[in-house]
Amino acid sequence: MRVVYRGIAVVAAVVAVAVTLTVVLLPSEPDEVVARPVTAPPAAALPSGSAPASGSAPSAASVSVSPVASLSPVPASASAAPSSTPSSTSSSVSATPTPGASLAPGYTAMEALHADPRLAPLTDDVRRMALRATGGRALKDRRTGLAAPKLPRPWKTYGPAPFTTRQVLPPQRGTKLRGMFVTCPLPIMEQESPRDTALLAARWTLNHHPEGSKISWLASQPVKNGWMLVYRVTYGRHSSRAAVVVMDGGMSKPGLAFVTVPDSQRRHWRDIGRVAAGVRVLG
Where is the segment annotated Disordered (predicted)? Predict the structure, then answer.
């Protein structure tokens, strides 16, 4: 048994020496993730969309400068500062007003009107129209403070809503368009100039003409307490004649008289002159 115990002791001594040599001669492999401090690279050195280097975890600073943040709107005051990360996806928003839409930020109503391709410019060479009042019966619009001429047959009064008075021509087969003459309080913002107010009112009347309609001017002139415009509305191969009269009837807002007659009822275009000459303030 002594020989056996002595042999075991010798084997144990050999193993211990071997382990010691292994520890001394072979240094341990360092743990890259734990042993090395985690530092985020400078934001300028990390282009947008690139991933952190392998073996390092992103710090709180690197998360706060995410590529998504570059898509947020930048205040105008910061627009002069150079961007550390150029973005190919950013795009500027055009401030040009869209016809028929709300005003773009920073635009006035008149700037939007002048940018609207549906309206020809109203130049000084647009002629004036001879206005001859013919008298006769009138419809009293007490909401606007105006008296509207009652047009002869086949015109007839019709349910006014959403206006305050309305007269129409009989409908025609094959088309939904027919002559219409209405009055109502001014549906747009009043401008300092009665002429500008009438221009905006004429633009508003395109809501009551076929899509794609365009305006060209036939007459423009002042009337008592307001302004009058007569114009042609073109849509495809057809057109209408129309007029607006903006007049101050002593109410909180000026009154608007608007008449339009399609070319299918062109024999009633002469009634547009009756409207332009006949609208007056209630006495």
Answer: 74-102
